[in-house]
Amino acid sequence: MDIRQVAKRAKVSTATVSRVLNDSPSVREKTSAHVRNVIAEMNYVPNTHARSLRVGRARMYGLIVSDINNPFFPELIDAFEALAAQQGIDVIFMHTNYDPKRLQSCIRRMVERSVDGIAVMTSEVDLEALQMAPERVPLVLMNQPAFKDRYRNVPVEYATGFREALEHLRELGHTDIGFISGPSTLSSAKRRREEWSLAMKRLKLPVRKGWVITGDMRMEGGERAMAELMALEERPTAVLTSNDLMAVGALQAASHAGLSVPTDVSIIGFDDLPIASMVMPPLTTIQLPRREIAAYAFASLLQATRDGMVANSDVVHPTLIVRKSTAVVPPRR
């Protein structure tokens, strides 16, 4: 679909459609409204790429994250933007608030703003949203193996981090281990839960269904899930969480229940956010290197926009950071 088809449907000239798209004041308000209605009906996205080349517009990348309020993402944004600045590339970013429908809107708006490529660093991804980007706009995703044959991808291997965490707990005498998962609607949360379960089985540690509680990836969800675990007659002696925010909520819930961390219960987070070393006790956590993810995503986009090639990204490996929220298993009372 091009501008000529829009002009034909609207029964105006292509020049008029172009003026409307560029918000020219020379078009009458009634005509402008009519053309915009036709554009919406036809789901037309202006292809400004060629025009951008003619006017010499600076290159621009889009960066989409799940939640700007989640401390995981600002460091990733900062690293990505710094790399772009070194190459003279502008960056615009948006966030989805974990909503796949909002992802569609983000991609569409970035295409309309004529970005040269988009880094989709979100937990939630679906094909319908990704297809909002035309072939001329390359995409790179964060750890989305389901789409690795169709889109560039920065893979994250969770198994090593969970194995290190569980081996650490086992060395401390823990075998009764619970897990606070993120929602199964988020692909990254689903994979983290699966990898935790596989690591438990490989280490011959029992997986008890009643000790796996779903949170919402935020502190409040972690607090509610931990309160549910701690209210059980027989509760786990250690709890892993799908991210650090829920681990901080778990620390609060343990305190409210009159339990001491790590004397009464050990807690391990995931991500190693700045807050992990600031809470009391400092949080043992699985570190996910955000700057490394940003670097791989940027390199992939840069190569795609230069020569159209698919850069094979290295696998990102999380590692365990031991602090003060884990200790020897308490004696059974």
From TrEMBL:
Which Pfam families does the entry mention?
LacI, Peripla_BP_3
Question: Which InterPro entries would you find in this protein's record?
Answer: HTH_LacI, LacI/GalR-like_sensor, Lambda_DNA-bd_dom_sf, Peripla_BP_I
Location of the HTH lacI-type domain: 1-55
What keywords is this UniProt entry annotated with? DNA-binding, Transcription, Transcription regulation
Q: Which GO terms describe its molecular function?
A: DNA-binding transcription factor activity; transcription cis-regulatory region binding
What protein does this entry describe?
Transcriptional regulator, LacI family
Q: Which SMART domains match?
A: HTH_LACI
Is DNA-binding there in the keyword field? yes
CDD domains in the cross-refs:
HTH_LacI (cd01392), PBP1_LacI_sugar_binding-like (cd06267)
Q: Taxonomic classification, please?
A: Bacteria, Pseudomonadati, Acidobacteriota, Terriglobia, Terriglobales
What is the species listed in this Swiss-Prot or TrEMBL entry? Granulicella pectinivorans
